[in-house]
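Mods, move this if it's the wrong board.
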Amino acid sequence: MNIAVIITCYNRKVKTLACLEALQETVRPWKDRIALQVFLTDDGCTDGTADAIRERPFDIPVHIQQGTGDLFWNGGMILAWKAAIARGGFDGYLWMNDDTTVLPEFWPDLLQADAYSLATYGKRGIYAGSTKDAKTGAFTYGGFNYLSKWTLVDQFVLPDGEHVQPCEAAHGNITYVSREVVDKMGIFCDRYFHGGTDHDYTYLAHKAGFPILVLPRFSATCENDHLGKTRQHTEKPLRERWKAFRSPRGTMHNTLLFNRRCFPWRVPFVWLSGLLKTLFPSIGYGLYLKRRLSFLKRH
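Not the wrong board. Structure tokens:
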């Protein structure tokens, strides 16, 4: 498999270097079957990330794209992805966050999922790696199913250590997208500014008939940092929360865009819910905590 690894970064030099070093070390035993090239967007880093990468003697080629400084995750990933497609010749594309550290199990599990997808569905698809906290071992990101298309309550598909499992959508922390999917679906929607586009892409690929599969074992370590960000938002003054609610760069923009594209009947309810959470943030944060604690108790 000839794979283009797609990464974007901003001022996380230590984590970005660790991400690349883990890629290099873990894929070495599989060099006869897997070849990597990294396409990385440096979105205006001021901590010397790009220079540090150029100074390291990486075995795998790392092609650095210079961002404008305001691309955020989605724009940076699009820039890197377009560069990979322009170079051509790849069997698939591996989305990675630069704070994700790949584990050795990922590569054989990826090959297993590719063979399983062809044998079971007659086509290649999207293969989602699950991540865990490096300190606690707790699940953090991966593939999931929607238990309700109205509430969008979801349930993660946890790796069972042995089997490839289907799901409906996935996070993009470490997720492989086959060329067959890209040939039909294209790349990320450029109307997203930061988050949400990985859920959008994988769910729409699922609706288009492509298999979305969770790999058998944990694929990487990655800390879940969303809880703290949610709390920080609730503590902002009303004027700042209102500005974020109306901003095209705010979370609400991405949330509404996702629903328009994937679940259009939900849009009025999502807008109203977002408004209530902006005016009364403790309610929204309390519901978020309740869902998170419920998940932890189940797993």
